[in-house]
Amino acid sequence: MTSQTPRPRIILDCDPGLDDAVAIALAVRHADTVGITTVGGNVGLEHTTANALALCDILGVPDLPVHAGHDLPLSGSLEHRATEYHGRYGTGSVRLAEPSRPPASEDAVGWIIETVRAEEGIALVATGPLTNIALAFQKAPDIIEKFSQISWMGGSSNGGNTTPGAEFNSWVDPEAAAMVFGAGHPNLVMVGLNVTHTVLLDRPWIDDLRRRIQGTATEVFADLLDYYEIRQREMTTLAGAAVHDALAVIHVTHPRLLAGTRRPVEVVLSNGPARGMTLVDLRPMRNPTPANATVIEWADASVIQDLIGQALTVPGADL
Ligand code: RIB
Ligand code: CA
């Protein structure tokens, strides 16, 4: 994106969450973010909302609207959250400062509807369970076509993380994911684990980031990523922290850094080991099932790592 390219207008629906925090920093730096809506996911709504508000303070955008949404999935319950990766409060081992303000409302769904009815062409970036989005589509189907695109970090075309088949955001609320995939938006983009696992922030990268932001307004990001990298290396064989959500923002702000293919995607709703799985039809058929999403399959890892490093470094710090 050159300095002349207008920054895309986006709504970011998220469940901060350590990688959501990086997504918020990228949205603030590279997008014209109309507002943030929060959803229960990694941790409960109370904490995802407080974290989003506190991160806006840290990133120097204390007036960016934050609207709280739904805590629980459409099914009304969930077995567990993701505190084993994100910490008890969703911010690793640190507690962010008390936010400078309360959320603008407790009605994220209503705010999304009224905002999109008033302005066509906003890009929707979602980095948590799709509960708020599905409810907005259900309540106001007219808004679906008004989004320029929908970029969702969720799902996977090669296996899950929460279960062998299901990725966390899809696993938390498969009914919501199925509603969004079934809504028929022509530019729905699935940024799944199959690609987010190819962009990792390793220990040397995080140590270098800490050196560069120590003592600045964004220094807490070194602690957030430190925790995330340690937990991911303790829990998985990944060689660093996969900052999944960052890629869903970067697909909108820097589209040339990711690429994908139109594919049919079905969300498994039946109870059992595959519930929440995003079943991507990869068969080489001459007459394939009509595609309903672009499944991202490639990302420019090294450029994305640099982009993330810059977004977490306050202007003027020594890059
Ligand atoms: O599976 C990764 C996703 O689940 C990310 O959005 C992360 O924040 C967690 O919510
Ligand atoms: Ca998330």
Task: Tell me what the structure shows.
The chain is an alpha/beta fold. 36% of the residues lie in helices and 16% in strands. The strands form three sheets. Strands 3-2-1-4-5-6-12-9 form an eight-stranded mixed β-sheet. A two-stranded antiparallel ribbon has the order 7-8. Strands 10-11 form a two-stranded antiparallel sheet. Helix 5 (131-139) links the parallel strand 4 and strand 5. The chain is globular, with a radius of gyration of 18 Å. The mean pLDDT is 96. The site of calcium ion has 10 residues, from helix 1.
Radius of gyration, whole Å: 18 Å
Structural domain tally: 1
Which whole number gives the mean pLDDT? Answer: 96
Number of helices: 12
* Contiguous runs where pLDDT drops below 50 for at least 5 residues: none
Distance between the termini: 19 Å
Please give the CATH architecture.
Answer: Alpha-Beta Complex
CATH superfamily (homologous) name: Ribonucleoside hydrolase-like
Proportion in helices: 25-40%
